[in-house]
Amino acid sequence: MTRGCGRPGSLLGRRPSVRNALLAGAAAGAAGTTALNAVTYLDMTLRARPTSSTPEDTVEKLSEKTHVPIPGQGEARDNRVAGLGPLSGLVTGVGTGALLGLARAAGWRPGLLGSAVAATAGALLGSNGPMTVLGVTDPRTWPASAWVSDLVPHLAYGVVTAAVVQGLDRP
Predict the structure, then answer these.
(1) How far is Cα 50 from Cα 94, in angstroms, rounded to an integer?
(2) Is 13:7 a contact under the CB 8 Å cutoff?
(3) CA separation for the pair 41, 152 (Å, rounded)
């Protein structure tokens, strides 16, 4: 009998261990994050759109609000902020996938569409929520093009994350 799995060959199965559920979900979230980044970079390439500064602005605002300074000065500090912005997106993507894996392990097993919607919503809330709360951006003021630029990559994230987590759950 495979420990933590309800079916042979399944990573999540009917009674997965918390560790297996987290690992499968995190792997799915990493795949979804790769899809999100690919769609974002493709959009930037096709439309000659600049990169967004909101992840870095969020890091700056969070540092200010929490009174946790970002080490360094000048270029060294700027480089740290430039790394922390995208890193926060990776944490959001992998973390959202891990939560999806845990939800499936707890018995929540919608189809691909339900899982994709949940993953998309989780990623949108995990990324845009802090930016909105901190006053970095206000989605209510975004033009349609900004919504499309944000929603399409997050939909790619949701579909890929859901497909991978379900694929890892099959015998």
Answers:
(1) 25
(2) yes
(3) 12
Q: 55: Cβ–Cβ under 8 A, 6 or more apart, which residues?
A: 85, 86, 88, 89
How many CB atoms lie under 10 A from the CB of residue 72? 12
Number of H helices and E strands in the chain, helices first, is 5, 0
Euclidean distance between CA atoms 90 and 165, whole angstroms: 17
Q: What are the sequence ranges of the domains in the chain?
A: 18-167
Is residue 137 within a helix (H) or strand (E), and if so which, with residue range?
Answer: none
The answer to whether 165 and 22 are in contact (CB under 8 A) is: no
Residue pLDDT, tens place only, 42-86: 999 999 999 999 999 999 999 999 999 999 999 999 999 999 999
d(CA 62, CA 122): 20
Is 108 strand, coil or helix? coil
Task: Find the angle CA(37)-CA(145)-CA(36) to the nearest 5 degrees.
Answer: 10
DSSP letter (8 states) at residue 9: T
What is the predicted pLDDT for the residue at 132?
Answer: 96
- Beta-carbon contacts of 148 under 8 Å, excluding residues fewer than 6 positions away, are none
CB atoms within 10 A of CB 77: 15
Query: Between 9 and 170, where is the model more confident?
Result: 170
